[in-house]
Amino acid sequence: MDYRTSEEIAGPRSEDTLPASAAAAVKVVIVGGFGVGKTTMVGSVSEIRPLTTEETMTQAGVGVDDIAGIERKTETTVAMDFGRISLNERLVLYLFGTPGQERFWFLWNGLFEGALGAVVLIDTRRLEVSFDAVGRLEERGVPFVVAVNAFPEAPVHSMADLRAAMDLPDSVPMIDCDARDRTSSRDTLLALVRHLQSLHTVTPETP
């Protein structure tokens, strides 16, 4: 028999519990190449303390992980990031950030399971590192938006040029984003929700 008082029994923190008004919870994934800002986005926008699996980069990654352009990076996600945000009183998003290095891509399939949509973060200095993320989403039929993350001294290109470089159809929304900023990250997630809603809007047939 457990003689502990209710105060002594560990449970979820009050700030981690879902609001009573929540009517729908949606799983979304934040994807992209190595070092594009996925962990930063989850951390900046999550209303609960985010779960991260960042580890210090070691000699094991030398010659395996491409750190060109992000030489100052010292930690990397080895499994996933997790956070949560309530977009309004009724809609809650569960956020799953994927690892970026190719050697951890085997984890992506599990993270994609049940996801209704995705945000693809890109870094214009290293656009090619997010090509595989887009390809995997297209293969699985997961709707997504592309967010151009703001990095200091990153080259500035028009959305039309970036869309052409990534071979994206006009139907895929592309927006600017600063993953460090909560409001900007939230606006990116709202853009994804609007995109998902537009895909599920049925246009009445004309008689």
CATH superfamily: P-loop containing nucleotide triphosphate hydrolases
Q: What is the H/E order?
A: EHEEEEHEHEHEH
Question: How many whole angstroms does the radius of gyration measure?
Answer: 19 Å
Total number of β-strand segments?
8
Q: What is the CATH C-level name?
A: Alpha Beta
Distance between the termini: 69 Å
Strand content: 15-25%
- Neighbour order of strands in the largest sheet: 4-5-1-6-7-8
> What is the second-level CATH architecture?
3-Layer(aba) Sandwich
Structural class: alpha/beta
Write down the domain tally.
Answer: 1
> What is the fold named in CATH at topology level?
Rossmann fold
Shape: globular
Mean pLDDT: 78
Largest sheet: 6 strands, mixed
Helix share bin: 10-25%
**Count of runs of 4 or more consecutive helical residues:** 5
- In the predicted model, the low-confidence regions spanning at least 5 consecutive residues are 1-12, 55-65, 202-207
InterPro entries: Gliding_Motility_GTPase, Gpn, P-loop_NTPase
Keywords: GTP-binding, Hydrolase, Nucleotide-binding, Receptor
Pfam families: ATP_bind_1
Protein name: ATP/GTP-binding protein
Would you write up a description of this structure?
This protein is an alpha/beta fold. The protein has a single domain, classed as Rossmann fold. It has five helices and eight strands, in the order βαββββαβαβαβα. It has helices spanning 38-45, 108-112, 131-140, 159-166, 182-199, and strands at residues 24-31, 54-56, 75-77, 81-86, 91-97, 117-122, 144-149, 174-177. The strands form two sheets. The protein has a six-stranded mixed beta sheet with strand order 4-5-1-6-7-8, sandwiched between helices. It has a two-stranded antiparallel ribbon with strand order 2-3. Strand 7, helix 4 and strand 8 (174-177) form a beta-alpha-beta unit. Residues 1-12, 55-65 and 202-207 have low confidence and may be disordered.
